[in-house]
Amino acid sequence: MSDVEEAVTRAHHEEWARVVAALTRRFGDLDIAEEAAAEAFATAVERWPADGVPPNPGAWLTTTANRKAIDRIRRENQRDDKHKEAQMVYDDDPPEPVGAIDDDRLRLIFTCCHPALAMQTRVALTLRMVGGLTVPEIARAFLAAESATGQRITRAKAKIKAARIPSRVPSAEDLPARVTGVLAVLYLVFNEGYLATGPDTDPVRHDLTAEAIRLTRLIRALMPDDGEVAGLLALMLLTEARRTARISANGELVALDEQDRGAWDAALIAEGHRLVRERLAAAAAGVAPGRYQILAAINAVHTCARDVRDTDWSQVLALYDQLVRLDPSPIIALNRAIAVAELDGPEVALAIVDRLAEALAGYHAYHATRADLLRRLGQSQQSRAAYDRAIELAGNTGETTYLTRRRDQLQ
C-alpha cells in the first residue's frame, strides 16, 4: 500500500465520524451527510496522489464534503429560496475546525440511537454513520443478509428525516431512558473494533475501539452516577488493555491463555479495576449490578491474574451465574461453559455447549469452543470438523489464522 493510500485509509478511520457528524448538524439530513462524506473521500482518492496529502486531512475532507452537500442541495432544489439558503450556508458559515466538532459526534450517536428505531436498526445505523463500516461489514456483524441490512439503514434514515428527529444530546431528565440503547450500540461498535468481522480489514480496528471508549467517556461525564455507564467503560478499558497482546507479529489472533501479560496496558487495567471497585462498593450498599458491571468484573478477575494458571475460575463462574439471571442468552451460556470446562472438565462443558447447537449454529465462536473441547477430550476427527465449520464462519483474518493453526495441530 502506498503512503497516499495509507493516508486515505487512516483519514477514513479517524475522520469519517467527524465529517458525517458535522454535516448532519449543519444540514439536518443523514442522507446528505453520508453521501457528501463518501464523495469527499472519493475525491481524496482521486486528488491526493497528484496534489499530495493535505496538512490537515480532516479539515480538507470537511470542507470538500460541505461543498458536495451544497452542490446536491442546489441540484435537488432549484427554487430560488432553496438556492439562496444553500448559498448562504456555504458563503457565510465556513466549516468549523475539526477539533471543535467532537460534540457533534455525541449528537449524532443519540440521533442514530433514538428510541423510535428498533434496537438492531440503531446499531446498524450507528455502525454506518458513526463507525464508518460498510454495509457488508455490518451485515457480517449481524449475521444478516447485506440486502436486508442496507434496507434497514435506508429506512432508518428516512424515518429520522420524516419524523424530524433532532440531532442533539437529550435533556438531563431524558438521559436515563435513552442511555440503555446507546450503551448497547457502543458495546457493539467496540466489539467490531476489537474483533473486526471484515475479512479485508485489520483483525483489530483501534479506531473503532478508541471511538467507542471516547464516546462512553463523554456519556459518563453526562451521567457520572450511572452504574452501567461506569461498568461499560470499565469493560472496554480492561478489554482494550489487552489489545497489543492479542495479535501476533504474523497477524494471528492470540488467545487469552497464550498472551504476554507483560504487554498489557497497566494504566488502562488500573483505571478499569478502579471503576469495578467503585461498582462493587455500590453493590455492597444494596445497588444491584447490571450486565456491563458483571462483565467488567469478569474481566477484572482475568486481568488480576499474573498467569493464566492463577485465574480464579470459581469467581468467574459465580459471576457468569449471576449474569445468566440477567441475560439468559445463548452467547452468555456459551461463555459460561468455558468457565465450567476449567472447573468441572471439558466433558461437562461439552454437554452444555451441545444444548446450544440450534441457537448458535451460525456463530463461529460456538464451533470454535466446541472444537477446543473435543480436542481436549481426544476426539480429533470431530474436533477437526468443528474447526472447519468455525473457519468457514469466521470473518476475522487473525481468528481464521489461529483456528487454522489449531486445527492443523490435531493428531
UniProtKB/TrEMBL annotation:
Residues 109-160 form the RNA polymerase sigma factor 70 region 4 type domain. Residues 18-77 form the RNA polymerase sigma-70 region domain. Keywords: Sigma factor, Transcription, Transcription regulation. It holds the Pfam family DUF6596. SUPFAM superfamilies: Sigma2 domain of RNA polymerase sigma factors, Sigma3 and sigma4 domains of RNA polymerase sigma factors, TPR-like. Residues 178-278 form the DUF6596 domain. Belongs to the sigma-70 factor family. ECF subfamily. This is RNA polymerase sigma factor. It comes from Microtetraspora malaysiensis.
